[in-house]
From TrEMBL:
<feature type="transmembrane region" description="Helical">
    <location>
        <begin position="143"/>
        <end position="164"/>
    </location>
</feature>
<keyword id="KW-1133">Transmembrane helix</keyword>
<dbReference type="InterPro" id="IPR027815">
    <property type="entry name" value="CSC1/OSCA1-like_cyt"/>
</dbReference>
<dbReference type="GO" id="GO:0005227">
    <property type="term" value="F:calcium-activated cation channel activity"/>
</dbReference>
<feature type="transmembrane region" description="Helical">
    <location>
        <begin position="411"/>
        <end position="431"/>
    </location>
</feature>
<dbReference type="InterPro" id="IPR045122">
    <property type="entry name" value="Csc1-like"/>
</dbReference>
<dbReference type="Pfam" id="PF13967">
    <property type="entry name" value="RSN1_TM"/>
</dbReference>
<feature type="region of interest" description="Disordered">
    <location>
        <begin position="708"/>
        <end position="742"/>
    </location>
</feature>
<feature type="transmembrane region" description="Helical">
    <location>
        <begin position="451"/>
        <end position="470"/>
    </location>
</feature>
<feature type="transmembrane region" description="Helical">
    <location>
        <begin position="6"/>
        <end position="27"/>
    </location>
</feature>
<keyword id="KW-0812">Transmembrane</keyword>
<keyword id="KW-0406">Ion transport</keyword>
<dbReference type="GO" id="GO:0005886">
    <property type="term" value="C:plasma membrane"/>
</dbReference>
<feature type="domain" description="CSC1/OSCA1-like 7TM region">
    <location>
        <begin position="356"/>
        <end position="623"/>
    </location>
</feature>
<feature type="domain" description="CSC1/OSCA1-like N-terminal transmembrane">
    <location>
        <begin position="5"/>
        <end position="164"/>
    </location>
</feature>
<protein>
    <recommendedName>
        <fullName>CSC1-like protein RXW8</fullName>
    </recommendedName>
</protein>
<dbReference type="Pfam" id="PF02714">
    <property type="entry name" value="RSN1_7TM"/>
</dbReference>
Length: 768
């Protein structure tokens, strides 16, 4: 790729960024968009924007940048949680390490690459990007020791910064554990794989087991029931049947006549909705066996339960130990926070989970392999000169105007790849859901890992392999030489990686700031559908898409820093812009419903270590190709040192992210007991985990006989003359009551009945 094609791509993306940032600074000031750009603040702080006309609202400004940078880390922690702080620290780490790398590589290594060979240079815009890579350095060059020294400096500083950030997040995690508001999840254990017997229910089995083996700390338990749309309907019907079994002293209003409606399709009449007389209902009721075991609600109990303990330490011990000699029975784990529970997966049989994990793993691998075709095609667009040698019919494209060729090779490939990548996150989230996670945060964290592996494989390795295949077909001929092959082709792929940073980095950040989908949805809802604003729905931050994206850019930065340092200035702009944009979004747009306590940081740490080791292996191959034994020899100890550092971090800091220290939990329990708060905490556990928060049991009572209404007022809906207006229908009827619906949301049912009645009357008007 020529420098001119790179400048074309950079110019387009810079123009889009400036346009989107300017539009955002104007749109965020409009009162109609307050739910889009200030969703978290509106929902949590109940703040409002001024409705008056102010000229300043229509002038682009940079005040939002100053406000985003003004917040301290403590304010971000209080507003968005520890996960947001971990994400923010990842950006800070990237800014620090790549600022140093840009300073060393752009001013120290880039001139060595440009003057690496004795050739006649063209003007900069017409130079090829390969001139600025290590591929332009001659073999046995006496300047390769500079590359090795810079590699040592970047790796050493990265390890130091990574350890400091790891320790900082671990300290914040311990403070997060000691927060003022008690977390019910610290007192609760989720038990799965409860053995079922015909003699006793699951509830009795749980109570007997924990009373016998955890008598000193066991408090009480709560059984989990099967959930799902179909299951909820079946459970509600069975509950109603059980209530109806004892329902004897009832009479039904006989004054209403049968209501006849016309079919909307064929026009035929139907009287299916008539009331049967009481003497017909009573005999038929005797034919129905309501004592059938299928109506027993106990059958809807699943082999899972929440078990509550008196102390945090008791819950921790119960969750860590193996309960029985059969590891698949009485499986215990610390329960997630109440807002984090994913109820749809808790009732899944525990023995089924390993099959689900294998199936989703295979599905993810197949999806990654299917993505090879579009990635190879996209990479071919950036190397039309190589494709021309094998596909002569492309000569016509290369004969097009110069600016069109620059657009095709410099901007179009990364745009097409970005469009394809939009399908990855939803599919990986579906795979993570099918695995059977017990919490929303676990599901999102699993999707984050899958998206990360997908991006590293398809955007990095597949692009490298496809670029090699276009030039030579022997990449897989010698697997032992993979480091050498990577060293050959990665400098040549730097052009595609730079355009990818411009398109997927700069442009996607401005799109994230604009909230295009939310803006369009808000406009359609308010001005097209004329619906009220949904004040309850505020999105949560998409960690499963943004964390892998930032880590992928970090991988590109590390691997290209020494080999093709021209990418570093573009990456620095992305990280600086991302630091401002993401802080603004976390503080204003997204609401934190649940928090993992910084569990994303081990993913970040492992990915950075992988990037460092991969960079060192590739540099080892490069030094071997350039016949520099001294530089290659010094690189091997660096790889060993990085792996030892990783092992130290895993031993020293990683255990703090897998469990909680018993010392801290015991101190918190003693403090709560001395202050008298423990009894209040135990009382709150009874209502902490509510599986059906919006439903209550249907209370069936005696139906009173409604007096005969000669004028048919009780059934006026059947003989309506269509003269009622919508305003009259929307007026509440104070005499409308139903004694069997005390446990249900009567107001919603009334609204639904009015809407259905109005639609039926409109239909009758059209047919009459």
């Amino acid at each position: 790729m020529k420098i001119s094609a790179l400048l074309t791509s950079a110019g387009i993306n810079i123009g889009l960024c400036v346009l989107f940032l300017s539009l955002y600074s104007v749109l965020r000031k409009q009162p109609a968009n307050v739910r889009v750009y200030f969703g978290r603040r509106i929902s949590e702080e109940h703040s409002r924007l001024r409705e008056a006309f102010i000229l300043e609202r229509f002038v682009p400004s940079t005040g939002w940048i100053v406000k985003a940078l003004r917040y301290t880390e403590e304010e971000v922690l209080a507003a968005a949680g520890l996960d947001a702080v971990a994400f923010n620290r990842m950006l800070v780490f990237s800014i620090r390490i790549f600022s140093l790398a840009a300073l060393l590589c752009v001013f120290g290594i880039l001139p060595l690459h440009y003057y690496g060979q004795n050739i006649q240079h063209l003007r900069i815009p017409y130079e090829d990007l390969d001139i600025f890579t290590i591929g332009n350095v001659e073999k046995r060059s006496r300047w390769l020791w500079v590359h090795c020294l810079v590699l040592y400096i970047i790796s050493g500083v990265a390890c130091i910064l990574l350890y400091l950030e790891f320790r900082h997040i671990a300290r914040l995690r311990l403070l997060h554990l000691k927060r003022a508001t008690p977390n019910p999840g610290q007192f609760t254990v989720l038990v799965r794989g409860i053995p079922k017997t015909k003699k006793e229910s699951c509830s009795s089995a749980v109570d007997d087991f924990f009373t016998k083996y955890h008598a000193s700390s066991y408090l009480f338990h709560q059984i989990v029931y099967k959930t799902g749309k179909v299951q909820k309907i079946m459970t509600g019907a069975k509950k109603a049947c059980r209530k109806l079994k004892n329902f004897t002293d009832t009479t039904v209003d006989q004054s209403c006549k049968a209501i006849t409606y016309r079919c909307c399709l064929c026009g035929a009449s139907s009287n299916s909705f008539q009331l049967l007389p009481t003497d017909e209902v009573v005999p038929s009721r005797g034919k129905v066996d309501l004592d059938d075991s299928s109506l027993n609600i106990d059958n809807e109990e699943c082999a899972a339960a929440f078990v509550f303990f008196k102390t945090r330490y008791g819950a921790l011990v119960a969750s860590d130990v193996l309960q029985t000699s059969n590891p698949t029975k009485w499986v215990t784990d610390l329960a997630p926070e109440p807002n984090d529970v994913y109820w749809s997966n808790i009732w899944l049989p525990y023995k089924q989970l390993w099959i689900r994990r294998i199936a989703t793993l295979l599905g993810s691998i197949v999806f990654m392999l299917l993505f090879l075709a579009p990635v190879t095609f996209i990479n071919g667009l950036s190397q039309l000169d190589q494709l021309q040698k094998r596909l002569p019919f492309l000569n016509g494209i290369l004969k097009q105007p110069h600016h069109l060729v620059q657009l095709i090779t410099g901007y179009l490939p990364s745009v097409i790849l970005q469009i394809f990548l939009y399908t990855v996150a939803p599919i990986m989230m579906l795979f993570s859901t099918l695995e059977g996670p017990i919490s929303h945060s676990e599901r999102k964290r699993s999707a984050c890992c899958k998206v990360l592996y997908f991006l590293i494989w398809n955007v990095f390795f597949v692009n490298v392999v496809s670029g090699t295949v276009l030039k030579q077909l022997d990449f897989f001929s010698s697997p032992k030489d993979i480091p050498v092959q990577l060293a050959k082709v990665i400098p040549g792929q730097a052009s595609f990686f730079i355009t990818y940073v411009l398109t997927s980095g700069w442009a996607s950040l401005s799109s994230e700031l604009m909230q295009l989908f939310g803006l369009i949805y808000n406009f359609i809802r308010k001005y097209v559908l004329r619906m009220k604003e949904d004040t309850e729905f505020v999105p949560s931050f998409p960690y499963h898409t943004e964390v892998p994206k930032v880590l992928l850019f970090g991988l590109l930065g590390f691997t290209c820093s020494v080999l093709a340092p021209l990418i570093l200035p573009f990456l620095l702009v992305y990280f600086f812009l991302g630091y401002v944009v993401y802080r603004n979004q976390l503080l204003n747009v997204y609401r934190t419903r649940y928090d993992t306590g910084g569990l994303y940081w081990p993913i970040i740490h492992n990915t950075v270590i992988f990037s460092l080791v991969l960079t060192q292996i590739i540099c080892l191959g490069v030094f071997g190709l350039k016949v520099s034994p001294v530089a290659a020899g010094f690189t091997i100890p660096l790889i060993i040192f990085t792996l030892l550092f990783n092992q130290y971090c895993r031993t020293r800091l990683l255990p703090l992210f897998s469990t909680f220290p018993a010392q801290n939990l015991i101190d918190m329990d003693r403090e709560d007991e001395l202050s008298g708060r423990m009894e209040h905490i135990h009382h709150g556990l009874h209502t902490a985990y509510c599986q059906f928060p919006e439903s209550e049991d249907i209370q069936l009572e005696e139906i009173r006989t409604v007096g005969n209404d000669e004028d048919g007022g009780g059934c006026s809906s059947g003989g309506s003359n269509g003269k009622e207006t919508l305003q009259e229908q929307q007026q509440p009827r104070r005499d409308l009551s139903h004694p069997t619906l005390k446990g249900l949301p009567v107001s919603r049912l009334q609204t639904a009945v009015r809407c259905v009645t109005f639609l039926i009357r409109l239909q009758k008007r059209g047919l009459s």
